[in-house]
Structures are given as C-alpha cells and as structure tokens.
Amino acid sequence: MLFSSMTFVFLFLPLVCAIYFLARKDLRNYILLLSSILFYAWGEPRYLAIMIVTILINYLGALGVARLDTQNTQKYRKVLLGGVIILNLGFLFYFKYFNFFIDNLNAAFASNFDVIDVVMPIGISFYTFQAISYVIDVYRREVPVQKDVYKLALYICLFPQLIAGPIVKYYTVADQIEQRTITFNKVAYGVKRFIIGLAKKMLIANTMGSVADSIFNQPVTAFGTSTAWLGAVAYAFQLFYDFSGYSDMAIGLGSMFGFKFLENFNYPYISKSITEFWRRWHISLSTWFKEYLYIPLGGNRVAAWRMYVNLFIVFLATGVWHGASWTFII
C-alpha cells in the first residue's frame, strides 16, 4: 500500500486515525502495531514472516548484548553483536542482491546457474538498518534494552516510515515509544505536512517523471543536446520531489500519531559543494552511515590514506544500499 493510493488516503488512514484517537493511551501502541502489520501485509503478506523473524532476532540479540554487559564477557558481547548484524545483513543480501550475484557469476564464468528468482520484500532496506541501529545503540549503552517485544516491533515496522524512510534511529524515538503526547497542533501540522508531501509526489514528481520517461525511452539518436538536458533536469526534479515527498508524508504521519521524526532533506539543490549536498540529501541515510560505519572504521581520526579508504567504503556501501546493479556501484 502506497501513501499516495486511494485506499490509503480515503480508507486506511481515516480508520486508523479514528480508532487511534478514540482509544486509551495504553492501547495506542498496540493499535499502531496492528495497523502497521496490516499495512505491510496488504501488499506482500508472504513477506510478513521475514519482518517478524527480523524483529525476534534483534529483540533476542539485544537482550543478550545487554545481559553480557560485564567486565568478563565483553568478548562474547562483541561476538553476539557481530552475529546479529551478520544475520540482518544476510537477509538483506539474499533478498536484495542474490539475483544480481548469480547473474554476474554466470556472466563471469559463462555458467548457467538456474536458481529461484528472489523477489525483494518492500521496505527491507529501511527496516533492516533500523534494526541494526537498535542493537548497536544497546551495545553502546546509549539506550536501555527494550524488554517489551511489542514496542520493539512497533519501532521496526511503524508504517509511516516503513517503506520509504526516513531511516529512524532507535535513540531518536525510544522515549516517544514509551510516552508521547498528541495535541491539536501536532495533528494539524502532520496533516499539513502530509498534504505537502502528497502534492510533491502527485503533482510534481509524477509530472516530471512523465517528461523524463518520454525522453529517455527514445533511442539516443532521436533527440539532441537540449532535449537530453531537459530529460536530465526533469529526472532530477522527479527524484527529489518523489523522495522528499514520501519523507514529508512520513514526517506528517508521525506527527499525527505523536512522533517527531528528523528531517530527511534540507534544500539539497541549493548546495554550494558536493560535501554540502551530501549533508542535505537523504540526511537519515548519510547520518546512519556516518554513525554506524564511518566513525567505527576510524572516521577522519586516522592517517590520510586510511581516511580515504573509509570514505570509499562508506560511499560504496551507500551505492550498494540504493540498488543491486553496477550503475549504483560505479
């Protein structure tokens, strides 16, 4: 189910809001959790089990990491953390990159491995990274371990940010899951932000996408330089307004239910440098890689050559995260 679909706007969202606002405070997390499960299962019910397994792995893994937090068990604590991260990334690799890996293996060795065509579950890139951030936050002692599996499940599969981000790090919403207030101003702001995001997606992104598709679906020899630039600019606007539109809708939905999600775009096309653009574009992803990959690798506190290696690893991982093809890797 997409935020821009008629089913979501005129059926799912009004029903969830009505039940949520009328319910007692102690029931609201359960209502949101059930709504999120229904939201996810609406499009791909067969992949709901993968998300449930992910929740259980990270729930039990974080409990183990917290329990091993003694002076004599630090080595086992690291091993457990590494195992949980590997399991998370293993699911992501299989569902997102397995076909790409097999296709390139066949091309490189002129082989013909005929294996099952794996279909990627929607949102797996987002909820996998969120699950990893939770376990690492517990390992770093930045947040207490969540002993209520339902609250952890709500964090991982909360429907406003489930399918298109932003990537919500656990420490930014841990307190909100436990206790949050809903006011008229928050709901009004959320509705306004959702409408702005919906307009970005439907009125601008889709229109720009039609222009870009009509140009780039033609043979290269069919258009000149000016038309090519028109297609490139139209695609640039489509990409921004589509992605930022979904982020606006997610932030708006979160506000309607009492959550405050961090901004994901900050006028990236007015950037004066590539560095500034990186800081303004898909902020939740860039900060995730900075906090959970770049800094643990040593960041810029190491020799210059090592810093450039760290940067290369981060940007390679960022490209691979976006999609399973050589264009993203390059």
Distance from N terminus to C terminus (CA atoms, Å) equals 32 Å
Tell me the number of strands: 0
Gross morphology: globular
Radius of gyration: 21 Å
Question: Strand fraction band?
Answer: under 5%
Question: Strand count, sense and closure of the main sheet?
Answer: none
* Share of helical residues: over 70%
Q: If you average the pLDDT, what whole number results?
A: 92
Number of continuous helical runs: 13
Low-confidence stretches: none
SSE-based structural type: mainly alpha
Describe the structure using short key phrases.
single chain; 330 residues; mainly alpha; 13 helices; 0% strand
Structure description:
This protein is 71% helix and 0% strand. The protein is mainly α and 330 residues long. The protein has helices at residues 6-22, 25-43, 48-67, 74-109, 124-139, 149-157, 170-178, 184-216, 225-256, 274-280, 283-294, 304-322, 326-329. Helix 3 runs antiparallel to helix 4 and helix 3 (48-67) packs across helix 6 (149-157). The chain has a domain at 1-180.
Task: Write a short abstract of this structure.
The chain has a domain of 180 residues.
Which helices and strands, and how do they pair?
Elements: H1 6-22, H2 25-43, H3 48-67, H4 74-109, H5 124-139, H6 149-157, H7 170-178, H8 184-216, H9 225-256, H10 274-280, H11 283-294, H12 304-322, H13 326-329
Helix pairs in contact: 1-2, 2-6, 3-4, 3-5, 3-6, 4-5, 8-9, 11-12
